[in-house]
């Protein structure tokens, strides 16, 4: 094999094969040559001529650096871990800066498909990056503990109480929040272990939640995911192609938005652990389930007709003169036009934590939504749902958190540097 057939010790035919497979599936998000990093670095697969290209799912890489952090507009991944940390007693701004520097360095390597050197556990040695993303955020209490209270955004004021809340304080909030997503369970676990190990003595885990979605390629064609109630979930999400998407989801990068400058290009994540009372839900007929949601279960189309992407006709009445989509249907109450145009980007994971003490499944949704301002995104919609959503008897909000997620790190920076070194 000639020198022209090798890039940085990785066979060019392997790089091209991996990139080609990912491109054919429409999944390439900037692999940057890291797609074959783990296997090549470990010398697996025999000599260079015997190495095989990774499948498209494994070869897909999401860049760590950018205007926004990855894991916000990234397509839903098959596996996820949500972890909140509290700074250790005595740890302050200096320790927090060193921690974010370590976390960012590890995340950059892992998302590119590179091993972590001597600190690598070897869990993901055979895999590519598998769309791994690692996203970092700050909770309200972080700022007081680091002497940065004046830099705390007003948007981090505590969320209001809702009547449907049954919140466990031990599984809510936190100084720091990390979202990990990947299309391979071992790659996601490897990142989780690395993040926890790199925390060292600076921070301690407050809570951890593990989730999943449908695996890429499990359906005949790409489609909106389903939740554990069997419903198509996420139809009304704002699209990046929409003219006002950035304004709704991200803090303006030009400094024209409210709040501190270090949040430019960032977003706010509301995290809710929502238990689904599946035994009660599954006692309903399919028709009654569809009335509760306001959409067909088969394809997610509104009960007023069309396809999943058809706008519901909220004025349409049936033969009995009543609205086809009931006044308390989830699709009606949560519709942006019913909430002053309030919009948020929902990017959840499902979860199943076994059987609860009462014999029912401890399962549901790790609800994560993104918006430029939670007081204009999540809060008005949740208030409306709280007052009369037909879905409310079948769900229970058990944990909650609100986090400021700064813009992406530039090359050579770590996440949060503009805050911690201001």
From TrEMBL:
Dyp-type peroxidase N-terminal domain location: 69-213
The reaction(s) catalysed by this protein are: heme b + 2 H(+) = protoporphyrin IX + Fe(2+)
InterPro entries assigned:
Dimeric_a/b-barrel, Dyp_perox_C, Dyp_perox_N, Dyp_peroxidase, EfeB/EfeN, TAT_signal
Q: What class of enzyme is it?
A: oxidoreductase
Q: Pfam families under this entry?
A: Dyp_perox_C (PF20628), Dyp_perox_N (PF04261)
Residue ranges for the region (Disordered) are 213-243, 292-319
Q: Polar residues bias located where?
A: 216-239
Compartments in which it is found: Cell envelope
Quote the cofactor binding remark. Answer: Binds 1 heme b (iron(II)-protoporphyrin IX) group non-covalently per subunit.
The prosthetic group or cofactor this protein requires is: heme b
| Keyword line | Heme, Iron, Lyase, Metal-binding, Oxidoreductase, Peroxidase, Signal
EC number(s) stated in the UniProt entry for this protein:
1.11.1.-
Q: Which residues form the Dyp-type peroxidase C-terminal domain?
A: 224-409
Q: Which domain of life is it from?
A: Bacteria
Protein family according to the UniProt entry: Belongs to the DyP-type peroxidase family.
What does the UniProt record say this protein does? Involved in the recovery of exogenous heme iron. Extracts iron from heme while preserving the protoporphyrin ring intact.
Q: Which NCBIfam families does this chain map to?
A: Dyp_perox_fam, tat_substr_1
Q: What is this protein called?
A: Deferrochelatase
Chain's gene name: efeB
